[in-house]
Amino acid sequence: MFLNWIWDILFYFGFYKRAKLMIVGLDNAGKSTMLSLLKHGKLVQHSPTARPVSEEMTLGGITFTAYDLGGHEMARRLWKDYMPAMNAVVFIVDTSDKIRISEAKTQLKGILESELPIDVPVVILGNKTDKPGCYGRVELLESLEIQEDVQKYGENNQQGRQCQLFMTSMLYRQGYGDAFRWLAAQL
Q1: Is 26 annotated to bind ligand?
Q2: Is 128 labeled as ligand-binding?
Q3: Handedness of CA 156, 162, 167, 173 (dihedral sign)
Q4: Which DSSP string do the residues of the chain spell out, in sequence order?
Q5: Does the annotation list 47 as a binding residue?
Q6: Where along the chain do its domains lie?
Q7: Is 25 annotated as a binding residue?
Q8: pTM of the predicted model, to two decimals?
Q9: Is 32 assigned a ligand-binding role in the annotation?
């Protein structure tokens, strides 16, 4: 009881921040791999996420409760149920899966145009940039049709939701650090 009171005071004065983070994207995009890398610092190959999984971690001075909701078609039905309670959304796209890019675009647009509160930032990770033939940043922006949603790094989007695209490789551990620093600055 006393410890909770101390945390409440620290949170009130800005010394301690907590946030709920929803990690979504199509199946096999790298959601569980990223969560494992962030939490344990290890690359682990996972089987498809059958049910929502949550992990708690501290990044950029914020303690996140991160929810990996899965990306298969049945799991996507749960996304909207979690959205109202979230402080941020991470959408992961497999940049090497050109066959399913329009499916990813549909899901991402659904999130950006949903009833998600406007103050909830969305970070998009273009993952698997280490694979040959993957989309580059400009190609991915165009394919997902999110040029208007994404502002230049560091600029504030005064007209709507904070939204940014980062190109990442979990294998080479690149890009996701910048993404989470940006995300922490938005919260």
Answers
A1: yes
A2: yes
A3: positive
A4: -HHHHHHHHHHHTTSSEEEEEEEEESTTSSHHHHHHHHHHS---------S-EEEEEEETTEEEEEEE---SHHHHHHHHHHGGG-SEEEEEEETT-GGGHHHHHHHHHHHHTSS--TTS-EEEEEE-TTSTT---HHHHHHHHT-TTTPPPTT---TTS--EEEEE-BTTTTBSHHHHHHHHHHH-
A5: no
A6: 17-186
A7: yes
A8: 0.84
A9: yes
Residue 39 among known ligand-binding residues: no
Question: What is the structure's pLDDT at 153?
Answer: 41
CATH 3.40.50.300 describes domain 17-186: yes
Known binding residue 33? Answer is: yes
Residue type, 104: A
Q: Is there a binding annotation on residue 4? A: no
For the chain, residues with pLDDT lower than 50 are 1-3, 5-7, 9-11, 13, 152-154, 157
125 is in an annotated binding site: no
